[in-house]
């Protein structure tokens, strides 16, 4: 059986898809029973030179060359952008073509609608490559943890920010030097906002939360904090307490009866002994905690041409299997339920807190009084000598809720001579 | 739709399966569309007290109560043993019942035959729980790396030996003290041979190699070395060079054109910076290297009642899906090909070598002469002061083949006053 593929986009991932399809054609046919053949690619810029694969298919700039081509059963969308990709995917699904996409922004924001269109048309819509590059986390969540109650899905799901934090921690680079290195190595865009402010991780976390809990969060449901405010001193202090500082995406059940979900992207302190602390540079990892299975972690490359292309290929071979068995149209994730979002009072964790305070008599007494009033108590405390008349106080606290932290933030904001320089959760 | 389940075995894993089916019944039905109901359990010892679940099904000791029960569509075999399990699984498959088993010994030794029987009868035979407990590695290999060429699958796949090695390395216990602790904690049997001599890992590696490379190795194809010969001094020396000592199962393509497979269970030195080095105590991890995807690692609990039961459940829900779609009978692993086993000359790695030599003039000259003759050269060398007139020489070598190592072993065996005390590969 031959299965025709139409490619929207021939950038790094698109080229990788073509290369794997060509290089491993024999193995793919042996394992799926199908010949997967690229019939057409549609690109924005026809003039661009393309290398790394044999070009034995036409390349045009007219979407209809794919959408109206009856020889094409599967559309691969790897061109990025939300609006144009949405239109094309919707048209493809409506034309009863299966769709494989790596577009996390689109799936996170309009996935629910597209999934419904795919179901209505009896075709597959897969997007393994949208989360954590080469790590097969979505298919694993939907096929291997179906019977378990997942209590938490958490991960290092943005390679750019993890690279920057790793370089700051291990090579003692400043944030700006580490960002510059990431840009030189091609891990960061010239405008890194999407990565370093946590939005990219937030899109991926929305998709992970959907697969783990069956919920449909939107961006405004998430607490999102990036890494731009992190300093070398914060990292050094976290290290001295035995923790790595990592940008994590965490979606978890909280509350006494575990009936609410907290979803958050933020820098957190991870104990050096935890597997997540060993995930360095551009690598990603996703941790799944299940009531039955315990703690499982999937680790691997979070981006890159070939790892991401491999996830697209895994989707393509799954469509091929569905075609052979005559079973397409099943949702990638069949899990839907309503769970409330957590209230600030339910989001409880130990904290790493940095306070800068004028080095005057009674200042420390005043600080400790504020925390006592908010019922936040310390487990570890470290004061370093004052520089420029400002003392730096670093503390680890007993568990405290976001509501308590909001209270202390307000108190400190309204006080003179004291500043809450950093506040991060401890991951456990 | 109700799906009837018959359980052979109600030990820890069997009880865990019943517990999850009962506790998560609603979620399982929501996600699979089916009610999975235990109809019957068959055990060896009817007198044994069983707790941890509601016993709302009959327990007998006659296999026919399951095999001849038309209300049972899926047989779960979690009683261990090879011979009796083989007979029961064969009868179940022939009676057109789907089978889920956690029996690694059986699948590793007679899996090929049982898979053929399942296919001929159009029923499923799944065994995710047979390898690495709660880690969903087999389904991942068969659904997410189908289009990739896997170059290596390697892992820490025996929790008992990993617990012992971790305790030796971190708490400086002797081998015997660590084994005793493992037995007290229930991680090791009273006769630990199967775990510490590498046989358990070998069974799992055979199954992993089948899924990764489509080959059908038998036990005699494997090089198997356990951990009983490892000393505290070996571990300390490996650590001092920057490596952890881990019992690994490694199946990889070797040779200039990567056209042969080397399969081996042995202690190896893993760089501290490698993710496998951070896998401690009873945990397991499987590393997959693919030409496209790069390096992916799955980490989690390698044994235990609930993690293993969760893998059985993931198989059960996949059978339920196959029943709903009317697609049972597909092999769990559809990959079959012939690849030659590697020759000793193709098995090349850097080595960690410990030599004990009489502390006499010219002894070291004699040793270095032997290695020069075998064309094995050192990258690191450390000699510690002689105790009882015996000097301990620890070395790391440049890459050397098993053929070269076999040669030097013979040379040393035939020489007086010199002993090859340890020789382990460096994993990279």
TrEMBL record, chains A, B:
<dbReference type="GO" id="GO:0004412">
    <property type="term" value="F:homoserine dehydrogenase activity"/>
</dbReference>
<dbReference type="GO" id="GO:0050661">
    <property type="term" value="F:NADP binding"/>
</dbReference>
<dbReference type="InterPro" id="IPR005106">
    <property type="entry name" value="Asp/hSer_DH_NAD-bd"/>
</dbReference>
<dbReference type="GO" id="GO:0009088">
    <property type="term" value="P:threonine biosynthetic process"/>
</dbReference>
<protein>
    <recommendedName>
        <fullName>Homoserine dehydrogenase</fullName>
        <ecNumber>1.1.1.3</ecNumber>
    </recommendedName>
</protein>
<feature type="binding site">
    <location>
        <position position="189"/>
    </location>
    <ligand>
        <name>L-homoserine</name>
    </ligand>
</feature>
<keyword id="KW-0791">Threonine biosynthesis</keyword>
<dbReference type="InterPro" id="IPR019811">
    <property type="entry name" value="HDH_CS"/>
</dbReference>
<feature type="binding site">
    <location>
        <position position="104"/>
    </location>
    <ligand>
        <name>NADPH</name>
    </ligand>
</feature>
<dbReference type="InterPro" id="IPR045865">
    <property type="entry name" value="ACT-like_dom_sf"/>
</dbReference>
<keyword id="KW-0915">Sodium</keyword>
<comment type="pathway">
    <text>Amino-acid biosynthesis; L-methionine biosynthesis via de novo pathway; L-homoserine from L-aspartate: step 3/3.</text>
</comment>
<comment type="pathway">
    <text>Amino-acid biosynthesis; L-threonine biosynthesis; L-threonine from L-aspartate: step 3/5.</text>
</comment>
<dbReference type="GO" id="GO:0046872">
    <property type="term" value="F:metal ion binding"/>
</dbReference>
<keyword id="KW-0028">Amino-acid biosynthesis</keyword>
<keyword id="KW-0560">Oxidoreductase</keyword>
<keyword id="KW-0520">NAD</keyword>
<dbReference type="Pfam" id="PF03447">
    <property type="entry name" value="NAD_binding_3"/>
</dbReference>
<dbReference type="InterPro" id="IPR001342">
    <property type="entry name" value="HDH_cat"/>
</dbReference>
<dbReference type="Pfam" id="PF00742">
    <property type="entry name" value="Homoserine_dh"/>
</dbReference>
<keyword id="KW-0486">Methionine biosynthesis</keyword>
<dbReference type="InterPro" id="IPR016204">
    <property type="entry name" value="HDH"/>
</dbReference>
<dbReference type="InterPro" id="IPR036291">
    <property type="entry name" value="NAD(P)-bd_dom_sf"/>
</dbReference>
<dbReference type="GO" id="GO:0009086">
    <property type="term" value="P:methionine biosynthetic process"/>
</dbReference>
<feature type="domain" description="ACT">
    <location>
        <begin position="352"/>
        <end position="428"/>
    </location>
</feature>
<keyword id="KW-0479">Metal-binding</keyword>
<feature type="active site" description="Proton donor">
    <location>
        <position position="204"/>
    </location>
</feature>
<comment type="similarity">
    <text>Belongs to the homoserine dehydrogenase family.</text>
</comment>
<dbReference type="InterPro" id="IPR002912">
    <property type="entry name" value="ACT_dom"/>
</dbReference>
<keyword id="KW-0521">NADP</keyword>
